Amino acid sequence: MTASPEIEVRPALPGEARRALDLVTPAAAGPASEDALLYANLGHLVVAARAGAYVGLCAFIPNVGRCAALLPPRLVEWDEALAARLIRAAAREAHRRAGALLVQALLDPDGPPSVPAAYEGAGLERLATLVYMRRPVSPDDRRLPSDRELEWKPYGRLRHREFARTIEATYEATHDCPRLAGLRSVADAIATHRSTGTFSPRAWHVARLESRAVGVELVNNLQGRGELVYLGVVADARRRGIGRALLVRAIRDTADMGLPQMGLAADAANTPALHLYEGMGFKEVRRRAAWFVPKEGLAALAAGADAASPTGS
Ligand SMILES: CC(C)(COP(=O)(O)OP(=O)(O)OC[C@H]1O[C@@H](n2cnc3c(N)ncnc32)[C@H](O)[C@@H]1OP(=O)(O)O)[C@@H](O)C(=O)NCCC(=O)NCCS
C-alpha cells in the first residue's frame, strides 16, 4: 500500500502534540503508556494529516553531543511508505533544526520486516546489532587485583585533552560501530558519554604505560548501575592485557560507587570486546538493531530532499 499523495507531513505546531497523539493512539490501547507520555511531552514532533485529520506522527529526542534518537513512528493504520515519510521528516528536523550529526534509531531485531524497511525507505542504514550485557558487582570486587604496570589518572578538566586524544586513538581499527567514524568530533562523543545517566569523573580513568596514555574506561551511574559508557585501548597497545586491566578497573569503580550491577552495550560484530566482556562474567540480556543516517544522507537532509537517497551506497 502506498501513501496517498494528499497526506501532508510537517513539523507539529506548538501545543499540537497532545491532540495528535490522542488521535493516533487507539482508545483500546488503554491508559497512556510511558512511551505515549514521552511523546506527548515532546516538542520535537512531526505529524501526518489528511484533510485536517491526523494519521500519524514521529518524534525525536535531541541529545548533547550533536546526536538525536528517532522514536518509532505511530500511525492510525500501518503504512510503510507513510512511516518512511514521517521518519525522514523527523530525521530532517533533528539534523536541520536541532543540529544533530548522529541521527539514530533503535529497533527490535525480531520485529516485522516492514519496520526496518520503512527506516531504509527514509534513508537510514543499519549501523550495528547492539548486544546489551550485565554483570553483578559485589563489594568484594573492590579488591580485584589491579595491573601494577599501569598508572591510573581520573578525569579532570586539566586532563580533558589527554582523554580526548586517547579516545580518538582507540577508534583506529575499531570493530565498535566503525561506520560512525568521522560523523561527529571526539568532543561531541565525550559530551554524549558525559550525559548518559550521572557523570562521575572519579569513575573515568585514563591508563598510562611508561608515561604514555594507552587506554580509557568511562563508567557512569545509570539508573543505579555502573554503565560502561566507553572502554578502548590504542591500536598499537592491544592484545597485551590492557583491555582486561581497564575492565577490571571499571568493575572496581562501580563497586567503589556502591552499585550492585554493571551494564554495557557492544557491537555484535566486535568479537574482541565481546570475548573480553564474556571472560569477565558479563551476560547478554537483550539485543537491538541500531540504524543511523550515514554521512552522505545528512547532506540530502540538509538540502531538504524528500525522497530517500539511493540505498546500498
Ligand atoms: C576490545 C579491546 C578493548 C580489547 O583490548 P585489548 O587490550 O586488546 O584486550 P586484552 O589484551 O586485555 O585481551 C583480553 C581478552 O579480550 C579478548 N580479545 C582481545 N582481543 C581479541 C581479538 N582480537 N580477538 C578475539 N578476542 C580478543 C580475549 O578474550 C582476551 O583474552 P585472552 O588474551 O586471554 O584471549 C580493544 O580491541 C579495543 O580497544 N578496540 C577498539 C575499541 C573498542 O572496540 N572498544 C569496546 C567498545 S564496546
- Classified by CATH, the class of the largest domain is Alpha Beta
Structural class: alpha+beta
Order of helices and strands: EHHEEEEHEHEEHHEEEHEHEH
Beta-strand proportion:
25-35%
Seen as an oligomer or otherwise, the chain set is single chain
Strand tally, please? 13
Number of helices: 9
CATH architecture of the largest domain: 3-Layer(aba) Sandwich
What's the average pLDDT? 89
Query: Which regions have little confidence, pLDDT < 50, spanning 5+ residues?
Result: 27-31, 307-313
Form type: elongated
What is the makeup of the main sheet? 13 strands, mixed
Bound molecules: coenzyme A
Please tell me about this protein's structure:
The chain is an alpha+beta fold and 313 residues long. The chain folds into 2 domains: 8-123, Gcn5-related N-acetyltransferase (GNAT) (Aminopeptidase, 3-Layer(aba) Sandwich), CATH 3.40.630.30; 132-288, Gcn5-related N-acetyltransferase (GNAT) (Aminopeptidase), CATH 3.40.630.30. Helix content is 30%, strand content 29%. It contains 9 helices and 13 strands. Strands 1, 2, 3, 4, 5, 6, 7, 8, 9, 10, 11, 12 and 13 form a 13-stranded mixed sheet that branches. α3 (80-96) crosses α4. The chain is elongated. The two termini are 26 Å apart. Bound molecules: coenzyme A.
